[in-house]
Amino acid sequence: MVFYGPNIPHSWLPMHMAEENNMPLPNAGLVYNAIVVHFSEGCFGEGFFSIPEMLPIKSILKMSNQGIVINGLSRIKIGLWMEQMLESTDVQRVILLLQILGELSNSEEITLLSSTGYWDNLNDSDATRMNNIYNYILNNFTSEISLEDVAYQANMTPSAFCRYFKLRTKKTLIEFLNELRVNYACQLLEENRYSITQICFEAGFNNTANFNRRFKHLKGITPQQYRIVIQNTFQNNKGVGD
């Protein structure tokens, strides 16, 4: 689940393209649907987000200019509210939108997708190189990826790539891979189709001890605790929605 401000380049990879590129498909056979909510900052009228009660939402709107990925309980709550928006009309739909923005403004389960001014400072050559790097990582993150392999995609030496990647993402390659794998593991935990051990290897980790350690470092709880919390939250919110 993501929240994009205006003019941020982004794209999604359809399932048939993943199959053509021999990408891992742990969810093969499932049908995917997307719910997209479009709105402009001025849709509530001039100055609406400048009143004191709306300042936290104004702040999250500004953050959205860097792109935001939404995880955990916030993702579950907002997903249910977006589904309710499909069945709502007029005032109720506006209320749900404000409820979503309110949740985002208070959530600690959001991550920025790009650094400040990243796209403004990116020239055409950098954009092409970073796109190649990201595509390679996204196509292979569930398998073992070496620094040399990724550096080769950028046509750089490993040491030069480390400096280049850290400068543009504010993360090392290992940090980036661990975040990507843990977030993917969260998705699999929410779907509740695999055991914890299966998810460990599906997400690209080579042993359960490392998986549990990395997961707890990034999420604050173990994979098993995360699954229990998500299931309880989903049931509670589903009951409220019904």
Question: Would you give an account of this structure?
Answer:
It is a single chain. This protein has 242 residues and is mainly alpha-helical. It has two domains: 2-112, no CATH class; 124-236, Arc Repressor Mutant, subunit A, CATH 1.10.10.60. It is 58% helix and 3% strand. It contains eleven helices and three strands; from the N terminus they run βααβααβααααααα. The protein has helices spanning 15-20, 55-63, 72-87, 90-106, 124-140, 147-153, 158-169, 173-191, 196-202, 208-219, 223-241; strands at 2-3, 68-70, 110-112. The chain has a three-stranded antiparallel beta sheet with strand order 1-2-3. α3 packs antiparallel against α4 and α3 (72-87) runs parallel beside α11. It is globular and about 55 Å long.
What are its keywords?
242 residues, Arc Repressor Mutant, subunit A, mainly alpha, 2 domains, single chain, three-stranded antiparallel β-sheet
CATH architectural label of the largest domain: Orthogonal Bundle
Give the fraction of residues assigned to helices: 55-70%
Given as residue ranges, the uncertain stretches (5+ residues, pLDDT < 50) are none
Q: How would you characterize the largest beta sheet?
A: 3 strands, antiparallel
In a nutshell, what does this entry contain?
With 242 residues, the chain is mostly helical. The protein is built from eleven helices and three strands.
Please describe the topology of this protein.
Elements: E1 2-3, H1 15-20, H2 55-63, E2 68-70, H3 72-87, H4 90-106, E3 110-112, H5 124-140, H6 147-153, H7 158-169, H8 173-191, H9 196-202, H10 208-219, H11 223-241
Antiparallel strand pairs: 1-2, 2-3
